[in-house]
Design a protein that fits this description.
single chain, Gyrase A, domain 2, 7 helices, Flag_FlgI, bacterial flagellum, cell projection, periplasm, structural molecule activity
Length: about 375
């Protein structure tokens, strides 16, 4: 099969977008395949290293309380030809730190990445410090980058004997472009004959829609959904040797992602998030709290002026108020109400977030909430 030229391929993309738009007509929202999937194997890799920050203004580690800092300092000096093993080290201008970074995919040797620096010992601040040469290791134990440079700290700490002010986190900072890549991760994406797309939110319906959209675009059954999280693409003949071109064209196709009906509740903060597919069967809701308010207003009773006898006394005065919220009514929610109708109905009852959480749990227990509840 002859390979399409770039201008003809661009026209094909436009036609495919129009077909997919007709196929997904009536959908409430669409997203590009690029935004809901990622190519298998194209990911970041975490790096970590242990190093020393020097040049601190007396805010470094206490060497008596941080033996690892002392041993690291002695070892560094010995590598530089200085014998400090028998010396009584009292410096407070050095701190042991952990250095972390993310190695982006397809990063080449000699390029730079940002690193994060965090204190490991008793240092009070890394402000003004400089990170010494620190190898950054991957999960396989190999060195992939080397970090060094001045640490940028956004927080600070200042104070005296009676007061101290701390803003932000002065014991952590960043070094922009602070690490140089020394080793590359070999991954030949352009030579693959089969590509797997991973859905960021696994769903059977969404995976099938992605595969259908790709097949309509390429004009042959090249894509198939393997499971709710994976779509396999066999590179067609007209894209042979140009997997990058195929992915570039495919990732622009619009898709209407499907989602399960779910209610997410964070009870610690009272936050409730409900999906658009949440539905309620016919249910009656009543909400009311018994409030008892006791107010103490003691009064002082004392005899009149020039009285021959009498004694000053404190007379208690107690006022008790009971609010049974009798004005609150029972509301009936019909079957199949939408998210907006549910929110409007609960708001009409004067229900706050805390009470709404309890109501949603009760509706779920009654079998009337057609959604999954996830508590954070």
């Amino acid at each position: 099969m002859p390979r399409l030229s770039r201008p003809i391929r661009c026209v094909a993309v436009v036609c495919a977008l129009a077909l997919v738009g007709l196929w997904s007509a009536g959908a409430s929202a669409q997203s590009r395949i690029k935004d809901i999937t990622q190519v298998e194997g194209v990911r970041d890799n975490v790096l970590v290293g242990y190093g020393l920050v020097v040049g601190l203004n007396g805010s470094g580690d206490d060497l008596d309380d941080s033996p690892f800092t002392r041993e690291s300092l002695i070892g560094m000096l010995q590598r530089l030809g200085v014998n400090a093993r028998s010396q009584d080290l009292e410096t407070e201008n050095i701190a042991a730190v952990m250095v972390t970074a993310d190695l982006p995919p397809f990063t080449r040797r000699g390029s730079r990445i940002d690193v994060s620096v965090s204190s490991l010992g008793t240092a009070e601040s890394l402000l003004g410090g400089t990170l010494l040469v620190t190898p950054l290791l991957g999960a396989d134990g190999e060195v992939y980058a080397v970090a060094q440079g001045p640490v940028n700290v956004s927080g600070f700490s200042a104070g005296g004997a009676a007061q101290q002010v701390v803003k932000g986190v002065p014991t952590a900072g960043r070094i922009p472009n602070g690490a140089i890549i020394e080793r590359e991760i070999d991954f030949q994406l352009g030579s693959l004959s089969t590509v797997h797309l991973q859905l960021r939110n696994p769903d059977l319906t969404t995976a099938r829609r992605v595969a259908s959209a790709i097949n309509q675009f390429v004009g042959e059954p090249a894509a198939s959904s393997l499971d709710p999280a994976t779509v396999r693409i066999d590179v067609p003949e007209n894209y042979a040797g140009d997997t990058i071109g195929l992915l570039t064209d495919v990732e622009q196709l619009p898709i209407s992602p499907d989602q399960v009906a779910k209610v997410v509740i964070d009870e610690s903060s009272g936050v409730i998030v409900m999906g658009s597919n949440v539905r309620i069967s016919t249910v009656a809701i009543a909400q009311g709290n018994l409030t008892i308010r006791v107010t103490e207003t003691p009064q002082v009773s004392q005899p009149g002026p020039f009285a021959q006898q009498g004694q000053t006394e404190v007379v208690p005065r107690t006022d008790v108020e009971i609010d049974e919220e009798e004005d609150n009514k029972m509301a009936v929610l019909p079957a199949g109400v939408t998210l907006q109708q549910l929110v409007d109905g609960l708001n009409a009852l004067g229900v706050g977030p805390r009470d709404m959480i309890a109501i949603l749990h009760a509706i779920k227990a009654a079998g009337a909430l057609q959604a999954e509840i996830e508590v954070l």
